């Protein structure tokens, strides 16, 4: 499943970028070697970042 259709960034690639330290959508683009175009995917990227942060928070509790 693609998170970013403009750049062909798949969800697993975005999740890998987040796991590698990307904390903002702009950093996901950089780590995937892409640049934002229409930016419709930014909300989905933020959701993935939030989910990752939440899972780390739960794991720490
Ligand atoms: S869908 Fe990601 S920049 Fe357009």
What are the main properties of this structure?
mainly alpha; Arc Repressor Mutant, subunit A; binds FE2/S2 (inorganic) cluster
| CATH homolog superfamily | BFD-like [2Fe-2S]-binding domain
Largest sheet: 2 strands, antiparallel
CA distance, first residue to last residue: 31 Å
The CATH topology label is Arc Repressor Mutant, subunit A
Bound molecules: FE2/S2 (inorganic) cluster
Question: What overall geometry do the principal axes of the alpha carbons give?
Answer: elongated
Tally of helical runs: 3
Number of strands: 2
Number of domains: 1
- Percent of sequence in beta strands: 5-15%
Low-confidence stretches: none
What does this structure look like?
- The structure is a single chain.
- This protein has 61 residues and is mostly helical.
- It has one domain (2-60): BFD-like [2Fe-2S]-binding domain (Arc Repressor Mutant, subunit A).
- Helix content is 57%, strand content 8%.
- It contains 3 helices and 2 strands, in the order E-E-H-H-H.
- The protein has helices at 11-19, 25-31, 42-60; strands at 2-4, 9-10.
- A two-stranded antiparallel ribbon has the order 1-2.
- It is elongated.
- It starts with a strand and ends with a helix.
- The mean pLDDT is 96.
- Bound molecules: FE2/S2 (inorganic) cluster (FES).
- FE2/S2 (inorganic) cluster (FES) binds at residues 4-7, 36-41.
- FE2/S2 (inorganic) cluster (FES) is lined by residues 4-7, 36-41.
Outline the secondary-structure elements.
Layout: E1 2-4, E2 9-10, H1 11-19, H2 25-31, H3 42-60
Antiparallel strand pairs: 1-2
């Amino acid at each position: 499943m693609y998170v970013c259709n403009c750049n062909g960034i798949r969800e697993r690639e975005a999740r890998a970028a987040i796991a590698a330290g990307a904390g903002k959508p702009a950093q996901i683009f950089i780590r995937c070697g892409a640049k934002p175009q229409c930016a419709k995917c930014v909300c989905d990227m933020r959701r993935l970042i939030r989910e990752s942060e939440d899972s780390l928070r739960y794991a720490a509790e």
